[in-house]
Each structure stands twice: as structure tokens, then as C-alpha cells.
Amino acid sequence: MNLDAAYMENGSGPSLFPLHRSKTLHLVRHGQGIHNVEGAKNYKAYMKPEYFDAQLTPLGWQQVDNLRKHVHECGLSKRIELVITSPLLRTLQTAVGVFGGEGYKDGMDVLPLMVENAGNSERPAISSLNCPPIIAVELCREHLGVHPCDSRRNISDYQFLFPAVNFSLIETDEDILWEADVRETTEEVAARGMKFMNWLWTRKEKEIAIVTHNGFLFHTLNALGNDCHPSMKKEVSTHFANCELRSMIIVDRSMTGSDLSTTDYPGKIPPGPDLPSDVADEKKCENEKVRT
């Protein structure tokens, strides 16, 4: 087997895709929630009703602050065009804490992203100035069902706590997706994740941050990584730590998106003869074959 054939067989060779058929995704797992602390010791703790829609711990907020510092220092905060968040308290807190504006002051002519002490956080209000828009999307929620920590509040409650977050894509005020006695299968989570990824192609933004959950990320990325080299799949789909960020490129192989390139240039302006020499050679060979 020659080298080219080996590359094609194991998928380890380079691949080319048009730039406008790709998006840059910055995937973030929320900071440490109160359910994570007990759940790490005893899995049954996730069943406790007191962890309903779990909020961040003080350590979780420290993780948020450190990730915020990182995205500003590396310049990421200036590049992100949109932030998508799961509509649960811990992800909303993480999204506004990492990607939101600076401190909010009374009298500002804008709504705050988060009001003071939202979710018993003992944190000051956060401004919606000088930051990308933040929208809540149900498709990127955590594994649905059974665990109270993965059930959400009414959207009207969140709208009071996070006034400048956009909840318009969520159809029902009450949580009709979470069931107390039925847990989503891993296959159903992965299918929902793929639906979410396909939905991203309806968005015009090219660089997007997504604040979500470990289970959702793990099962979705495992499904997406099936065409990767095994070592790359492992890198992509291993479990996320709290407040971990991974940046990835997603490619529209199915031609779902309709965006035109903003950087391609058609050339030949003004027009003129431009027959390449190699094409001329091919035509010469074809003409000689016809004559013989």
C-alpha cells in the first residue's frame, strides 16, 4: 500500500474544506455546582430534591472568574459573536460570569445580564455592555430526567434573574422535557446533540461559545468523532472538567448551511485571457489524440 492510500484508509491525512462551510465552537462546561460536590462522593446524591436546578458553589464562581480572565487574556472575548447557554441556573451563571460585561451599576441605560445575588450567589450584578449576545437553548441541556439537578425553573423566573439573556427560543415557561421517572438514554442524548449541531448551521455567527454540561458534551462529541482518528476522537470527546474550555472547528459536510464566503474573490476583474499553462498542455494532448 502506498503512502497516499494509507492516509485515505486510516483518515490521518489532511482534509480541505471551504472556510465558509465551517464554524469555530468554544465548548464550555459549567463551573462546579452544589450537586457535583456530593455527587462525586455518592452517585445517589444526584437524586436529592434539594439539588433542584443546582447553582454554582463558591468554588464554581472562582472557576468562572479564572476562565473569564483566560478568555480576556487570550483575546477570545473579542472574537466570540454569540454565546449559547443551556437554560439551567449553573450554566446561566457560568455564561454571564465568563462572557458577560463588567459590573452593573444602577442608572445604566441597559438591562443587566444578571441581577445581584442571583441564585444565592452573593455576587454583584453583571452588565450586558461590551459583550456578545447570550441566548438560552433547550437542545443543549444536560441528560434529561430523574435527577432533580437537571430540571429547570420556569423561564419567567430566569427572566427576572437574567434580564438581558434572550429566552425567546424556549417555547414553554414550565419544564415539560424533564420527567421524574424517565431518564434519557445515551443514544437519545447523542441524537439531541446532533440536532443541536445541525441547528447551529441556521445561525449566521461563525465563532460561537456554548456553555453546557458534561453529559451532553460527552455523548454529542462521541457521536461526532466517529470519523476521526482514534487519538483525535479521544482528545475531542473525553469528559470535561468544571469550567473547562475546548475550541473546535465544525464542518458542514452535508451542505446544510447557506452562508456565502465573505473572503473568496472571483478574480478576472477586469476580464482577460487567463488559460493556465497546464490546462493548455491538457488541451494540446487531447487535440493530438483526436488527430490520431
Going across the biggest sheet, name each strand in turn. Answer: 5-2-6-1-7
What is the count of helical runs?
10
Rounded mean pLDDT score: 89
Gross morphology: elongated
The computed structural class is: alpha/beta
Summary keywords:
292 residues, alpha/beta, five-stranded mixed sheet, two-stranded antiparallel ribbon, 10 helices, 7 strands, 35% helix
Structure overview:
This protein is of the alpha/beta class and 292 residues long. 35% of the residues lie in helices and 11% in strands. The protein has helices spanning 3-10, 34-41, 58-73, 76-79, 89-99, 155-161, 186-200, 214-224, 230-237, 277-291; strands at 22-29, 82-85, 112-114, 126-127, 134-136, 207-212, 245-251. Helix 3 (58-73) packs parallel to helix 5.
Write the layout of secondary structure elements.
Elements: H1 3-10, E1 22-29, H2 34-41, H3 58-73, H4 76-79, E2 82-85, H5 89-99, E3 112-114, E4 126-127, E5 134-136, H6 155-161, H7 186-200, E6 207-212, H8 214-224, H9 230-237, E7 245-251, H10 277-291
Parallel strand pairs: 1-6, 2-5, 2-6
Antiparallel strand pairs: 1-7, 3-4
Helix pairs in contact: 3-5, 7-8
